Amino acid sequence: MSASADELNGNIRLFDPDEDDFDLDPTFDGSTAQGQYGVLTGGVDGYWSYALLVDAVDALYEGDTVKDELELSLSNGMSVPFAFEIVGERARPVLWSEDFSGLSEGVREDTGETAWGTDGSQATAGPVHGVSGGAYRFSESAGQSEPGFVTWSSEAIDTRGLSGLSVAFDLWEDGALEESGDWSDFIEVAAVIDGVRNTLVSVAGDLPTGEEAQSYRFDDLVPGDSVAVEVMAKTTGEIESYYLDNLVISGEGAATGDEILWSEDFSGLSEGVREDTGETAWGTDGSQASAGPVHGVSGGAYRFSESAGQSEPGFVTWSSEAIDTRGLS
Q1: What is the DSSP secondary-structure string of 74-133?
Q2: Which of 39, 111, 231, 302 would you label with 76, given CA atoms 20 to 30 Å apart?
Q3: How much is the pLDDT for 52?
Q4: pLDDT, greater one: 164 or 137
Q5: DSSP letter string, 191-248
Q6: What is the pLDDT of residues 11-38, one digit of tens each?
Q7: Residues 170-206 as b or e (16 or more Cβ within 10 Å = b)
Q8: Confidence (pTM)
């Protein structure tokens, strides 16, 4: 059942094959049972209802499937087992996505908000690759019996503090791609977590769906501090192509309710310092001051003093670096 369905109802025939008198058939007698995701209640004449526990099912993300197993007691001392399969519908917060829409044909990198790039240095032919028709096309990176390939890589996305990680994407192909031999072709997609490459999909030759998009989704990846997606592809002819599209990286909540993303207590900094370019970077701007200004680290804190004279509007600004909060709840 869907997590958005409030209640499920049904009816089962209860009888005792050893009793000739139907009045002695067992009943639920209004018995109830609470599971992890819902409450099961028995009614008269074998009727029952299963009501979802809102807080429990709201925590289930899209694609999550769980089973709630319960038993209702009968008036004769026996019980009837029930099992309910529940499919989550909560959307995972999107950390990063790329569908290649709005990009010029043939583009091989994007330095915008969702940055990515490519490396054709390992190709031994061509290579022919780039944005094509709102997807990314990989074609002709090697000749006969050659190992050449092209690599597409997303930027590294900050995943600190997340309790779960998901990667989804579409692949398809065009042409007669070979699984083995002198003209063999392949495509491989990996999640690079904290610099460690984790292969998600590796296909030699034709994809299972051919020219129809094959959608892949990998949930419950263990997040580290960062993740990037890397795609390696090899084809041995310009009429043979693999395509990548609709790449989405999503995360699941903070690991704890008080996850610290950034902090500064000014300890260990020299007196008078007005900026820090280290791990927790910050800076100051005294250009709007009309006097002094007197400011800087002082006694393990930041001191602001004398930025304006009488009736003057001058001030000093202290600013932290921008902290990435995509996907946090």
Answers
A1: -TTS-EEEEEEEEE--BPPPEEEEE--TTPPTT---B-SSS-EEEE-TT-SS--EEEEET
A2: 39
A3: 92
A4: 137
A5: EEETTEEEEEEEEESS-TTTTSPEEEEEEEE---SEEEEEEEEE-SSTT-EEEEEEEE
A6: 877 666 665 544 456 788 788 999 999 9
A7: bbbbebebbeeeebbbbbbbbbbbeeeeeebbebebb
A8: 0.61
